[in-house]
Amino acid sequence: MAQHLVVVGGDAAGMSAASQARRRRGPEELRITAFERGSFTSYSACGIPYWVGGEVAERDALIARTPEQHRARDIDLRMRTEVTAIDPAGRRVRSRDLATGAERWTGYDQLVLATGAEPVRPALPGFDAPGVHGVHTLDDGQALLETLARFDPRGVGRPERAWHAVVVGGGYIGIEMAEAMLLRGYRVTLVHRTPEPMPGLDPDLGVLVRRALERLGVEVVPGAEATEVLLGADGRPRAVRSTAGEHPADLVVLGLGARPRTELARAAGLALGVHGGLRTDPTMRVLDADGARVPGLWAGGDCVEVLHLVSGRHEHVALGTHANKQGLVIGRNLGGDAAQFPGVVGTAITKVCDLEIARTGLNERQAAAAGLRWTAAVIESTAQAGYFPDAAWMTVKLLAEQGSGRLLGLQIVGGAGAAKRIDVAAVALGCRLTVEQLVFQDLAYAPPFSPVWDPVLVAARKAAGQLGRM
Amino acid sequence: MAQHLVVVGGDAAGMSAASQARRRRGPEELRITAFERGSFTSYSACGIPYWVGGEVAERDALIARTPEQHRARDIDLRMRTEVTAIDPAGRRVRSRDLATGAERWTGYDQLVLATGAEPVRPALPGFDAPGVHGVHTLDDGQALLETLARFDPRGVGRPERAWHAVVVGGGYIGIEMAEAMLLRGYRVTLVHRTPEPMPGLDPDLGVLVRRALERLGVEVVPGAEATEVLLGADGRPRAVRSTAGEHPADLVVLGLGARPRTELARAAGLALGVHGGLRTDPTMRVLDADGARVPGLWAGGDCVEVLHLVSGRHEHVALGTHANKQGLVIGRNLGGDAAQFPGVVGTAITKVCDLEIARTGLNERQAAAAGLRWTAAVIESTAQAGYFPDAAWMTVKLLAEQGSGRLLGLQIVGGAGAAKRIDVAAVALGCRLTVEQLVFQDLAYAPPFSPVWDPVLVAARKAAGQLGRM
């Protein structure tokens, strides 16, 4: 008789696992049921800011695979159906059809938990009002676009001032949404906690992001905690109050990060890590508090913690690329292969208008937290040969460990062609290269693409020099 | 008493070595004399096509460091002075002042040979006529610009046809010069030997380059050997004859590659490798025929052969980035460090108008020559998320070794943002990663920069699948 695979969560990790398992095991061997409480499967949450900003015209462009496409591959996909309990001992899950309210138990042989993350929404006055928007799901994006449609951002009909958007949070989503709201014609205020935006960068590079935002007309309010959304008579935002003052707001966008969505797992008595995520081994099997595998239980995507290969610690890194890889690993293992997800090095990239931003490995705060001793080298260069027309400037900051000379991390802020160079450091971190080894990597050189010494290598040379190794 | 370092050749390798040695040893410890037979030092030969094409306005923009700048660092630089003999046993070199004809011997303690490469120019009728141009040195570029100035490329005064340029050779220089001549308003014919242009690529990717050239209006004549430059009454080109016919030509550009310039070394009895280049150990000390170090003798840049880390063979790879690194290694060693140049993986990159082209490692021809067994995976993807506005297409070809699964090489042809991804594979080759290891590298993902699976990883997944490893 066929085994039964049950998947909780119909996005990247869950449906990659289901698809990969299906590629390897036909319906006669493996029955697959997947539960998704929302209305969409397998979509690009990372694309939402570009859809909201109008660069991507259609919501459906963000959907990599529809429910129908999954069903065509013999996956019994239950949309708008929420899993309300899991029972690992009894190997069953309880689900509720959100349309009818009907509940039922479903038995499984193997269970994949891919419940994702939930955006942080402060339990503070006004934060749950209409017009205060997260941008975590396609439904969130749709709701924000509906709010945008209420206003004419050019200020017609409200001549005393332009329309204002306040973005709360200065990380990736925050600055991407700041750009999106600029593109929609809003005056934008960015309220964030840290001294500079982009806390994944050290402040000496974050300041470059702040200046770029300010040049674009964004009012950046650093070091401030949003404490209240003040509502007008219509029950919608009129301002955001922060520890730095009051900021006019016709709408509010929240970009405060996300936590693993693991209430189900916690309620089922499963062990969670310090960041609240499920812990797995490299095969993506769920571990209990003693580090033993929970029989038949797998997890991947934004609900798990991952091994950071540089710090050696487990971190929560909500990112589609990891979710996809982890889903691949789960699906291969369910299909009889022996696959492992080795971990992450903390690579991330974004842009705000023409400014490219990327980081990988550890920044200074993280290196300190990991108890490491390091040197930091900062260099300025160009992304193309310096004499090339319109060569874009870029700033590179590299951290290397004292003693070993091992590369610890890289940060890049710059113009066109700058940021994707971070991948060189990502692979170098994965291979635990020293900065001297990095200097001699055979990177591509031609004037339209790079100076003769690629900026990443220049930073590595400088760090090696500071360590007395070059 | 100070030691005496003599450098032969004032470009990247030689002057990097001199500068690095000077940083570590002051004039009281180390006297440095450098001979350069030309009029320029430390310039970007790779930039010449962009200068000729008009994208880089000024010749001097290509000069990284002038003779005066070198002299300011206590380097006794003799310009327009050709070294005519080296005497390793007597530790001296003979030089001729090209202005006065005066010759003299100069003793040395340490000698750096950085004589570069010489462009291939066939000993066939007409190839030495005025109007037949190499593009190897700044003087070459200047001469070509002077020829361009003779013509009005729009055809004024010669109404029966537009002006024609024939480019001989379909490698990097050939296609870069084809673009440059297009930018100058010429009709361009590209005559080359191989079935498709860009022999560093396999023909299934080279065909994409040919089609792009043809779309730009270049007449591509593949599989043809140029046999004669036919001259008009003015002693200048009127056509190029090839094994495929006769091609009208008002000027001819040669892009037939370059050989190590090692006549001096050969005349001095030094051993040369199969490609005619000097052989060195990883410290860049010159080796004799028995593999022993020749006392006091160093070499770097386009005149040496380098270890190819994937094939394990020694190759001649004339490229400024290697020359600079080798010069750094020599200079560090002369300064008392212990530095090594580990070798290359064969990375190269270029573009023709909007088409980006890159390769690293081994292509199929090279893999066969190295006696390897491989699988080749070809994939199509986009350089940004597929739904992103103006996402550029790209084709990636990946070679992996059968048995070991080791990455052997990567080739990329595509639009904006495609080619510099080759660096991921370059580092992976340097670290001898398998394709499964490559799949799990933590590459940067955000919609403006990449699909959720970076195209390089997609190619690695496909190859791993073909090898039954995924």
From TrEMBL, chains A, B:
<dbReference type="InterPro" id="IPR004099">
    <property type="entry name" value="Pyr_nucl-diS_OxRdtase_dimer"/>
</dbReference>
<comment type="similarity">
    <text>Belongs to the class-III pyridine nucleotide-disulfide oxidoreductase family.</text>
</comment>
<feature type="domain" description="FAD/NAD(P)-binding">
    <location>
        <begin position="4"/>
        <end position="326"/>
    </location>
</feature>
<feature type="domain" description="Pyridine nucleotide-disulphide oxidoreductase dimerisation">
    <location>
        <begin position="348"/>
        <end position="452"/>
    </location>
</feature>
<keyword id="KW-0676">Redox-active center</keyword>
<dbReference type="InterPro" id="IPR036188">
    <property type="entry name" value="FAD/NAD-bd_sf"/>
</dbReference>
<keyword id="KW-0285">Flavoprotein</keyword>
<dbReference type="Pfam" id="PF02852">
    <property type="entry name" value="Pyr_redox_dim"/>
</dbReference>
<protein>
    <submittedName>
        <fullName>FAD-dependent oxidoreductase</fullName>
    </submittedName>
</protein>
<keyword id="KW-0560">Oxidoreductase</keyword>
<dbReference type="Pfam" id="PF07992">
    <property type="entry name" value="Pyr_redox_2"/>
</dbReference>
<dbReference type="InterPro" id="IPR023753">
    <property type="entry name" value="FAD/NAD-binding_dom"/>
</dbReference>
<dbReference type="InterPro" id="IPR050260">
    <property type="entry name" value="FAD-bd_OxRdtase"/>
</dbReference>
<keyword id="KW-0274">FAD</keyword>
<dbReference type="InterPro" id="IPR016156">
    <property type="entry name" value="FAD/NAD-linked_Rdtase_dimer_sf"/>
</dbReference>
